Amino acid sequence: MPPPAKKARLDHRDISNVLHNDQIANTKAQPQQATSQGPRRAVVRTKHQPVGRQSRPKLRKLEQMPLDILYEIFQHLSPRDLLNLARTSKGFRAELMLRSNAFLWKASRALAELPAPPECMSEPAFANLLFCNHCHGCGKTSQSQILWPIPARYCRDCRQSKLSIDPSVISGIMSEAAVRVEDVVLHTRINGKGAELFHVPELDVIGTTWETLQDIDTKRQFIKERTETAVLWNELAPRLARWLRDYQRLLDADKDVLLKKRCVAALAKLRAEGWDNEIDMMTWGNLVRLSNLKQLASKAELTDKSWRDTRSEVIQFMSRFRRPSAPVNEYRDRVRSRLRLLDRALWDYRRSKRPENAEYETECGIRFGDLAATREVQALLEDQSSDLTRDVILTRLEHMIPSLADTWFEQCKSSHLSIAQAGLEAAGVAAVGEPLNLAIVSFQCLAEPRCRMELNLRWPQTLSHDCFRDANLVDGPPPRANKYEEEVWKYLQELGWDHAKWTIRRRFQADALKFAKGIEDRSQIVSLCGLDPTTATVQDMNNQGARFVCSICSSPETGRVICDWTRMLRHEKTDENGFHRQRKDALGNHWVRLPDQLAAQARSLESTVTWKEYTCIWCHHSTEITGIRQHLQLRHEKAEPKLGVDYYCCEQRIREVSIYPESLLQDPEAQATVREGRGFFARF
């Protein structure tokens, strides 16, 4: 919130007056300089006159606004924009650098989801570190690298003078204080490689300050403060590096969106001229080549005039995809054209779902191949009635797809339920409640040899399992395919292979899916977590929070990997030779449960986001931010893709956390793992 009105603060007239007085001073100084140099000489008039500070009409309008409005505007700017604004005039700099206006920087930082700076650094200095590319040593704007653990920006030349491998200048001080140099002085490695390099200016500050300290208490307090600062920056540096990496990806993605908007407009022009079939049949590689054409790879808007100038080159590129006229085949033409409508109707159905259901619908919901295989859709696509126009077919499909999706889902659930009940009965387990929700119920894939050891497939995630979704249709149509199925297969081949487009229904029968073996292990793991195997659901197991380490695979002297219940299952599954069982009789004997405090520390690290993947709502294509926006622009022709409307974010978190004994505090590998946020030191 802005400070109360009673506080003394700069009036908006003061801001403009500072700039106005500066302009007057500049204009008065110019004639004096000219007279001191004698008479003026004839000069050649340049094409572009230099622009002085006085020619900033937009900035003057901003300075004339009331402060309350300016504060509201500032809180909606990014930290980079605030930093640049503070450098436009003395008035804005004076206002933004007031300590009482730190709330402006905090609001801007929160808008960018940026972590808070440490107490030893101000908000403007923090923004300057992240967003200003000037070298902190020489001030040049050449390529400078942020050395996070220090923290500072240095160019290649300054790194030679500002970093040193030898901290001997304060070795006597460290001996007197009985601490290690690494614990007090910030240090780094170039690109994470090589020897530890110490910050020379900090070495000088420590040496100079130490000489001014007289008594032992002040020296101890000084060492304590320096140690706390070093620990704080070592913890904060990995988070800032990840944030800046994600921020840079977003900037690159925004630039790419501007470049692809011109291509999206060109696709709309082409469709208006009758190139629908060629556009629909273009592969992803050809769409990218189209967007990279010199005439389309521009940020300029595609106006009618610019389209007339570029149309001939674009048409020449598209003509290579126009196939010779094939013999008239009414059945083929009718089915092919309506398959495109089915694809479009499915996109609209997914888009109509609420954002919170988008991930579930695209991963586990009905897909193109499932719909194309239903009798209702096949009958509509083959119907020869003359009154079936394009709009009528789309309307019918929009009404059919929701009920077909529900029916398909219930059929899949019924087949899974029968397999689960048979598996529980064979194991002699009397389950309570919904069997598919139990933690001890999982399925094994038999569709492909490479997945025969996959024992942790659960409902409904089995619906998104690759082996159930990807039919081997590269070499030919499905076995015993009829005329309709062959046309669907040819349609998919012409579109370019997409693993999401076809699903064979027989993949969900008993010969492709069975109850996973190892129910005894799953039951014991649930019991180790303190729950009843006959009633504990997957949600219960995810919420209970217990963490374990295996006493056989690792030793306390080298560190141990911390496992939740799902990692414990995978750990036992990979024990193909029974190594654990040769050493111990029961599964629970080699699993050691962590105390609650250490388990909470492990869960905190596991919640760290390491990577963000984005998924298209219209189809289920997933990739990084730049790729998903390109996909939406070129494949779905969305000029400006929007998060939550056209795509959603899936956060990838740390998959493995390790615990190290305090005896490894000096171990470089353990230290690197802890700095990256993938482990911690503890007595256990």
From TrEMBL:
SMART domains in alphabetical order: FBOX
Organism field: Dichomitus squalens
InterPro entries the UniProt entry points to: F-box-like_dom_sf, F-box_dom
Region of interest (Disordered), ranges: 1-59
Gene3D superfamilies given in the database record: 1.20.1280.50
Record's compositionally biased regions (Polar residues): 18-38
PROSITE patterns from the UniProt entry: FBOX
Matching CDD domains: F-box_SF
Domain of life: Eukaryota
Domain (F-box): residue spans on this chain: 59-108
Designated name of the protein: F-box domain-containing protein
One Pfam family matching this protein: F-box
Bias-annotated ranges (Basic residues): 1-10, 42-59
